[in-house]
Each structure stands twice: as C-alpha cells, then as structure tokens.
Structure of FAS-associated factor 2:
Amino acid sequence: MLNYGLCSKAANMTVLYIFFSVSQALRENTYPFLAMIMLKDRRMTVVGRLEGLIQPDDLINQLTFIMDSNQTYLVSERLEREERNQTQVLRQQQDEAYLASLRADQEKERKKKEEREKKRRKEEEVQQQKLAEERRRQTLQEEKERKSECLPPEPHPDDPESVKIIFKMPNDSRVERRFHFTQSLTVIHDFLFSLKESPEKFQIEANFPRRVLPCLPTEEWPNPPTLQEAGLSHTEVLFVQDLTDD
C-alpha cells in the first residue's frame, strides 16, 4: 500500500509539473482559456488565444477566422504529412523488395552450394568406385597368381593316369592341359581361374552326358570328386560358361 501511494503521488506530481510547464509556456492571464496550437514551420505554434467568457457565436466565428487564417499552413502540413507517408510507404516497399531479392539471391546461392556439394559427392563416389574397382582387380590378379603357383605339375603325356582336357572358353578360344585322374575337380577350376582370359565367375560343363561338374565345395558336394569319380575319360572336351553377369 505504501509503494502504491508513493507511485500515485509521484504520478500526480508529474502531471502537475507538465500542466505548470504548459501553463508557463502559454502565459494565460485568465480563465476560461482556449489556445489553438498547430504545426507551423515544423514547430508547434500557438495560432490563437481565447481568454475569458465568450459567447458561442463569437467563439465559432473566432475559431473559424483562426482556421481560415492558417489554412495555408494546414494544407501545407497535410501535404507534407501525405508526402512523408508516401515516402515511408515507398521506403517500406523498397525494403520489402530488397529483402525479397536478398532472399532470392540467398536461395540461389544455397541451391548452387547444394549442387556443388552434390557434384563433389558424386565425383568422390565415382573416385571411390574406381579405387574399389582397382583394388578388386588387384586382389583378383593376386588370387589368380596364387592359384597358378599352387597348381600341381602337369602330368607327362605318356602317363597312363593322365587326362587330356580341351577347354572351350566363352570367347571361343581353346585351352589345353593334362591332369591326373586322382586329382580333384577343384584343380581344373583353379587352373582355369588362373588364366587371364577366363571370366571371374564360371562353371565347367561336360557334354556326354551334359552336366555341370561340381568343381567347388557345396552343401551337396562338400568335397569335390576326382576326375575319375566324375567319369572323365582320357580325352575330354569341357565347356567354360561365363557366370559373371548372373
């Protein structure tokens, strides 16, 4: 309650101070007192003073006279106010247009940056794919060399337990090599795999009867059979089928 009372008293004192200041500025001599104030030459100016008692008709006449006398200033101030308003509206429109243009430029730059980043990621992805392909080819070549080094020696043509096999490759070329009846079919696969012209994935087929030779371990053939167990004769023609795209 004390704080409220102090605030109210302070507010009243402020009002009284303003009233006193205005009164001092107007320098009225008696009451009732009426002053007409308008913006004139960009200053608030008293253009009419009416003091003491006055009849209604006289009041209206004097007010009308004061307004007519200052009509030029009133019109001028109205025009200046309208001009200021129009200037303000124009400036606001210009600001809005600038902001819209700025946002459009920012959006264009964002899209350009996004495109550049997308292009960079694409180029990086292509480069990574190239590196991965190179590593894959290098690994494949190393595996081919390893398989070639691990191949058992080729039997002598006079060896009665040898098998002469002619391989028809997917590119219509022919490769010939001898193997031993007791060797696993895996040896045939390793030999073909070690060749440069062989596809990465392939299967070996026999013609009579037509069948795919189980050269690699599977659930059905965990241990691939020997050439003899597979029913190969002393001379065979086998077909290499490319499975790379399958």
In short: The two ends are 93 Å apart (CA to CA). The first strand starts at residue 33 and ends at 40. The beta strands are 33-40, 43-51, 162-168, 174-180, 202-207, 210-212, 235-242.
